[in-house]
Amino acid sequence: MTETSLIVRPLATPAEYHLQLMLADQEFSPNPSPESVERWQRFMTGLPDFRPEQLRGAFLGEQQTGGYMMYEREMRMGTARISTGCIGIVVTHPEHRRQGVATTLMRDAIDFARSRNHALLLLDGIPKFYYRYGYTDMLDLSVVEVDRSAILAVPASNYSVRACTVDDAEATLRLYNQQYGSYTGCFVRTLERQRYRLQTRSSPDVVALTPDGAVQGYLSGFDGNLVQEVAADNWEALLALMQHHAVMFKENNTPPATLRYRLPVHDRLVQWMLDHLEVPDTSHWQHPAEEWVLRAESYHHRHAGWMARIVHLPTLLQSILPELQARWQRGLAQWNGRVVLAIGDELCALHIDGRQITLGDPEHVTSGVEAIQITPQAFTQLLFGYRSVAQTISNASDEMLAVLSILFPTGHAWLASTDWF
């Protein structure tokens, strides 16, 4: 079999759907089963924005050799919105591995994304594999770990906690937008999609309520002492949620010493924890500067986590222009000039006139400003704030580095767990 003999097309029959999702279930589910396959198919095909052409298979004649799913979403980057293809459940039939199926699927994903006018592709999957198709690391996940005794030592919050219902969709969507909307990687989410998520979630969420019953926080995705997602309006709501989490283990003979929350290390919720929590007994501390009530872990491995690649540079630049403008104005910068980036074999020209930024026509770039050379992968990392400008660009003046540092700051990317695919 050669790559050229494979074709990729939308899945067309119930049997093709079943085989693709059975392969995915066997590859990715901890406990694969026919019931799991059925649940997966109901969930995916029931998504409010699902379209049949998004579920795609590779075929050798009539033989189905693998496939993938392309979720289509709008990613936030501050005030900008970036049309993004999100690739999931990439799988090859065991009898056809190492025969070019995955490469064919990846090429189709790029072509399909271009046909849909997406600016970016995003995925998370096989370590040390996707980089060969132009993808690069754009986010390292982190978890904050909190001493459970410090949570229990705080007087009980005057907020209450109850199970989340579908009727809480509007309130929890507001909290999601408030908590994660400022991060690059947050997706635009409709109320319909939020209701669907609450209807189909595999484990119950809980919400925090004010004394008069208003929803002001939630926890989502309990996994032992780890909570996958948390949002709160204020400290009292967050405290109520954490205290609820802490007492979930009161019947255990050996409850966990710590509780863990998947959050960006510098998130405001983490700062609230630091401002209010203290270990009740520090008598055993030998070196207080090395002790903690909260510690953070970040997970790093090259080419092994969340990765992205550019699909169409002009579309991407036009999409991010509103946020570049907003960053420049927030930075109170005053500068006149032109920034020319040679991103791979394409040119990008930004014209800055005092407080205004516009995109120039690359075809009209002259020799007046020397282009800064940068790979598409490095530019993708600048886009997500994964690396600083100084770490990424070496062939630019100090003045140009200062300009680019305002436009491309670090540390603003995050993917809430309810956005994973």
Q: Give the count of helical stretches.
A: 12
How is the largest sheet built, in terms of strand order?
Answer: 1-2-3-4-5-14-6
* Overall body shape: globular
Average pLDDT for all residues? 95
End-to-end C-alpha gap = 30 Å
Structural write-up:
The two termini are 30 Å apart. 32% of the residues lie in helices and 28% in strands. The model has no long low-confidence stretch (mean pLDDT 95). The chain folds into 3 domains: 3-136 and 303-308, Aminopeptidase, CATH 3.40.630.30; 142-299, 3-Layer(aba) Sandwich (Aminopeptidase), CATH 3.40.630.30; 312-407, Nonspecific Lipid-transfer Protein, Chain A, CATH 3.30.1050. Helix 1 packs across helix 2 (34-46). The protein has 421 residues and is α+β, with helices and mostly antiparallel strands.
In terms of topology, how is this protein built?
Layout: E1 7-10, H1 14-28, H2 34-46, E2 55-60, E3 63-77, E4 80-92, H3 101-115, E5 120-124, E6 136-139, E7 142-147, H4 148-153, E8 160-163, H5 169-180, H6 191-200, E9 206-209, E10 215-223, E11 226-232, H7 235-247, E12 258-261, H8 268-276, E13 294-298, E14 306-310, H9 313-330, E15 335-343, E16 346-354, E17 356-360, E18 372-374, H10 376-383, H11 389-392, H12 398-407
Parallel strand pairs: 4-5, 11-12, 15-18
Antiparallel strand pairs: 1-2, 2-3, 3-4, 5-14, 6-14, 7-12, 7-13, 8-9, 9-10, 10-11, 15-16, 16-17
Protein name: N-acetyltransferase domain-containing protein
Domain N-acetyltransferase: 6-157
GO molecular function: aminoglycoside N-acetyltransferase activity
